[in-house]
């Protein structure tokens, strides 16, 4: 399986296609050692063999000039003996005595190196390739050109220049990491790439999801554990060979495989003594080293260090990094050099770095690292604590966690740790917990807090409250409402209400948030919603009295969420905005993000898509700037940003956002992002739906929102595929985990009713409509719901219309209400795709009632939207409806003016021309052939009296686009 190389293989097969058509092509494939050049060329060779062509593959070797034309000789020798070659190919090779001198059995190995002999050989090679090309395309591969001798480089240049109409594709591969500044192949590559028939393919390392797929393929399709994939990708940096070696070693516990270490160290051993010493110093420094530090620690003179660095950089082992430093080109190279150091040498170098960093007030993180390696534990401890706090300040929670954990591991090994750290052990551990939360690792935060509660001093009540309040917070993030409420209630009861304290205020705010998770189905908390506003006001008053502005903001958000469902006129977006600003001023970024999310979400629920988009963009920028991109609200804000653009019909923008939502996911947070991409892919009939679902499915049981989104969209996919029974399986599974009053049930029920309408099952349809009505009208505490967002109202209207359809009464009025509901009060706006889907059903219902002209108008509007969005399943359904109901031939009233002579189909084509579609895209949108699209365009130009598509488009915009 060729993973992650489709574009590169397409470039090579494109060159092969040109060669097969009679235009010779040369492609130079570059990439680091192990990145997959041979694998890629092997895939191309299989394509050539499948087409019946000739394949000649030869390899260079690290033998200097002692074996001229080695890859050509290798290619000819292999091809002549390859049973996969046709008899004709082997016969042609055997008939060329001039080239036999290059074969192992030849009697003259030097004739090709003289000028005359070289000309003779070049000409004979050209003739041989031309003759082979008469029977089919020829692929000549010269591998490892970084080791090519002078004669082979000249042959490469000659063939690239003179091959023209021969059916030959010449491919050369080389290692970019071996091409130092003075390498003889470098000017050859630069010269060849200026030729018109020569192109380049640069192989990049794998992305994280490609590494995951690669490792899965190595394991016969069994996905490796997420932490293994993450570690292998980080260490290999996406290099396939390195990844395979590290993955194999991971199974045996080997840190750095000997074969891989030897390969990496071989490059270092080519350097001079001074350069090797500098590389060892750099390896101790870390991935990056400052110029001044490496000079001082190496012990060499300035001139010697300068010469050594030039040699190292020219061999591409270190690369300049910024104005005053260098970094290893690959982290594994640094790891191999570091592991090869003697223990005493390693300790002395670390101590030298630590002394310089301490004297120069250097980075706390670097000082901690070098001090620990030099066994100076007190300095390492203090520096680790300082490094953790610095990492928190700059929004790097993963790094902060690493530093705090190191300090905690040293706590018992250093004198006076509380004095050195400026805090006690438990509160330092709480800082580590906070870093877990900021990194999106809520489960680990919960696990650690539980252990801290077991060991904390029970007499320290304030600390006990702090630990329980933090635990309740992360339990809420994990939707573990009952345990969160129990824990928060326990914290509230540990301190008296008077005098007010920030700890008790925080505990009250956590308790209120837990109650919002709707405990109506939990015996202990059933009916406790009555207590929530009182508790929230108490938390707000205590927070204000003690200056805990972040706590006050959090309680305000909870109170706003409570009142939102009960007070229809409440301006919740403004309330959430105030809470956000208050939390930002207090420096409480977690609460600020929660408030920012609900501020944007509330605007979205009210149909203010522009305002919601602006609010979400601002919140996402704040999230990334605060290092909270992987936190719960960091992830959910990215989801909301995508959803807003998807809803507004801005699918090009939405697709750009979804491109960052990985497919091969292994964690719930990643899977949630991936699930949102399904909105677009299902609606557009994307090819990646099946693969994305395959990766998400194992995580359905870990996150309710994930299951709701992905299984709901899986149901829609099944309906487009004509499988309503499979759709109902997904619908039932989702409704089984949603609480009756959860408004998410409305959309799922509407989707299920679509399936029941297809199956004609009336009684089951009645149950689903009842479920949708309950969710729309009732709060979790059983009271009437005062507020339901515009989208929720629209889905309820859809459910009512689908229910009638299931009962055989496809009511146009119900579908007209659905269209209006999804427009959000703005005709032509609102939820663009769902408006189009509702118009499809409205057109169908009108056609069934005999209102053909009205049906045609709704049908054309739906077609226009589906084409603009690229919603292929909907467009296909509309095409089917148009054919069955003969709607495409209905004459629109608006066909007048310069467009009166156009047929309905020509008006459809003109609309797409005006939107910039070429003939191929027109053909795809209208389900016709490109040739037919071309004929329509020619007819349009003639009828409109214009000479170009641009003029036709300008006329259409100026006169008003036709409506059919």
Automatic annotation (TrEMBL):
Entry annotated with the keyword S-adenosyl-L-methionine: no
Keywords: ATP-binding, Nucleotide-binding
Database matches in SMART domains: HTH_LUXR
Stretches assigned to the HTH luxR-type domain: 895-960
Keyword Zinc-finger appears in the UniProt entry: no
SUPFAM superfamilies linked to this entry: C-terminal effector domain of the bipartite response regulators, P-loop containing nucleoside triphosphate hydrolases
Pfam family, one: AAA_16
Name the UniProt record assigns to this protein: Helix-turn-helix transcriptional regulator
Organism: Actinomadura keratinilytica
């Amino acid at each position: 399986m060729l993973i992650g190389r489709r574009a590169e293989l397409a470039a090579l097969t494109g060159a092969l296609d040109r060669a097969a058509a009679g235009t010779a092509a040369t492609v130079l494939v570059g990439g680091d050692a192990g990145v997959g050049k041979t694998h890629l060329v092997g895939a191309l060779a299989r394509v050539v063999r499948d087409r019946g062509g000739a394949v000649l593959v030869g390899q260079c070797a690290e033998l200097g000039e002692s074996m001229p034309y080695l890859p050509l000789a290798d290619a000819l020798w292999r091809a002549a003996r390859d049973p996969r070659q046709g008899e004709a190919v082997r016969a042609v090779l055997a008939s060329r005595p001039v080239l036999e001198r290059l074969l192992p059995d030849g009697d003259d190995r030097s004739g090709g190196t003289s000028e005359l002999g070289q000309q003779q050989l070049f000409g004979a090679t050209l003739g041989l390739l031309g003759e082979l090309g008469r029977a089919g395309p020829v692929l000549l591969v010269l591998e490892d050109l970084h080791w090519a001798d002078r004669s082979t480089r000249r042959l490469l240049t000659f063939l690239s220049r003179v091959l023209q109409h021969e059916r030959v594709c010449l491919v050369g591969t080389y290692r970019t990491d071996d091409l130092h500044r003075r390498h003889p192949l470098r000017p050859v590559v630069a010269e060849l790439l200026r030729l018109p028939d020569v192109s380049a393919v640069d192989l990049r390392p794998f992305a994280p999801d490609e590494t995951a797929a690669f490792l899965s393929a190595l394991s016969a399709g069994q996905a490796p554990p997420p932490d293994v994939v993450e570690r292998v990708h980080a260490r290999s940096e996406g290099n396939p060979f390195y990844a395979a070696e590290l993955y194999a070693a991971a199974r045996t516990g080997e840190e750095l495989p000997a074969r891989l270490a030897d390969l990496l160290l071989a490059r270092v051993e080519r350097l001079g003594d001074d350069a090797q010493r500098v590389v060892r110093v750099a390896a101790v420094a870390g991935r990056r080293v400052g110029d001044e530090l490496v000079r001082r620690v190496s012990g060499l003179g300035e001139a010697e260090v300068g010469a050594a660095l030039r040699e190292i950089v020219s061999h591409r082992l270190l690369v300049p990094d910024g104005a005053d430093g260098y970094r290893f080109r690959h982290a594994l190279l640094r790891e191999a050099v570091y592991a090869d150091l003697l223990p005493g040498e390693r300790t002395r170098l670390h101590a030298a770095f630590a002394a310089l960093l301490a004297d120069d007030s250097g980075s706390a993180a670097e000082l901690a690292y070098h001090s620990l390696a030099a066994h100076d534990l007190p300095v390492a401890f203090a520096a680790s604590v300082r490094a953790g706090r610095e990492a928190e300040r700059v929004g790097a929670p993963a790094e902060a966690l690493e530093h705090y954990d190191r300090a905690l591991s040293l706590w018992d090994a250093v004198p006076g740790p509380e004095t050195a750290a400026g805090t006690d052990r438990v509160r330092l551990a709480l800082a580590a917990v906070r870093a877990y939360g900021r990194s999106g690792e809520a489960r680990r935060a919960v696990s650690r807090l539980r252990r801290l509660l077991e060991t904390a001093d029970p007499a320290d009540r304030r600390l006990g409250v702090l630990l329980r309040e933090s635990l309740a917070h992360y339990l809420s993030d994990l939707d573990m409402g009952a345990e969160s409420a129990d824990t928060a209630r326990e914290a509230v009861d540990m301190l008296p209400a008077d005098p007010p304290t920030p700890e008790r205020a925080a505990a009250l705010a956590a308790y209120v948030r837990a109650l919002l998770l709707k405990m109506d189905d939990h015996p202990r908390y059933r009916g406790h919603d009555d207590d929530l506003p009182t508790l929230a006001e108490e938390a707000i008053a205590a927070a204000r009295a003690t200056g805990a502005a972040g706590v006050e903001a959090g309680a305000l958000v909870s109170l706003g969420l409570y009142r939102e469902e009960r007070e229809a006129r409440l301006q919740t977006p403004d309330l959430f905005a105030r809470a956000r600003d208050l939390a930002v001023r207090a420096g409480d970024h977690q609460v600020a993000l929660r408030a920012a999310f609900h501020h944007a979400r509330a605007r979205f629920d009210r149909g203010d898509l522009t305002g919601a988009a602006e609010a979400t963009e601002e919140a996402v920028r704040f999230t990334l700037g605060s290092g909270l991109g992987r936190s719960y609200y960091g992830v959910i804000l990215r989801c909301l940003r995508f959803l807003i653009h998807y809803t507004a019909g801005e699918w090009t923008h939405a697709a750009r956002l979804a491109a960052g939502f990985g497919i091969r996911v292994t964690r719930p947070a990643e899977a949630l992002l991936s699930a949102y991409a399904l909105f677009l892919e299902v609606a557009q009939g994307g090819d990646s739906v099946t693969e994305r679902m395959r990766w998400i499915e194992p995580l359905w049981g870990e996150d309710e929102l994930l299951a709701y989104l992905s299984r709901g969209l899986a149901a829609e996919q099944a309906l487009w595929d004509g499988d309503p029974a499979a759709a109902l399986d997904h619908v039932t599974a989702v409704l089984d985990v949603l609480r009756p009053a959860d408004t998410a049930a409305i959309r799922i029920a509407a989707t299920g009713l679509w399936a029941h309408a297809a199956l004609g099952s009336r009684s089951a349809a009645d149950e689903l409509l009842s479920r949708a009505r309950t969710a729309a009208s009732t709060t979790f505490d059983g009271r009437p719901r005062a507020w339901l967002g515009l989208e929720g109202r629209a889905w309820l209207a859809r459910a009512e219309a689908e229910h009638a359809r299931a009962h055989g009464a496809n009511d146009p009025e119900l579908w007209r209400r659905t269209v209006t509901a999804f427009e959000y009060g703005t005709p032509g706006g609102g939820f663009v795709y769902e408006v189009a889907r509702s118009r499809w059903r409205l057109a169908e219902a009108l056609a069934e009632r005999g209102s053909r002209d009205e049906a045609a108008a709704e049908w054309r509007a739906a077609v226009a939207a589906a084409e603009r969005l690229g919603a292929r399943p909907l467009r296909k359904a509309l095409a089917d409806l148009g054919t069955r109901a003969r709607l495409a031939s209905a004459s629109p009233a608006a066909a007048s003016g310069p467009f009166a002579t156009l047929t309905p189909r020509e008006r459809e084509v003109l609309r797409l021309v005006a939107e910039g579609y070429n003939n191929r895209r027109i053909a795809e949108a209208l389900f016709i052939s490109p040739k037919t699209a071309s004929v329509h365009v020619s007819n349009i130009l003639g009828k409109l009296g214009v000479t170009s598509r641009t003029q036709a488009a300008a006329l259409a915009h100026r006169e008003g686009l036709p409506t059919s």
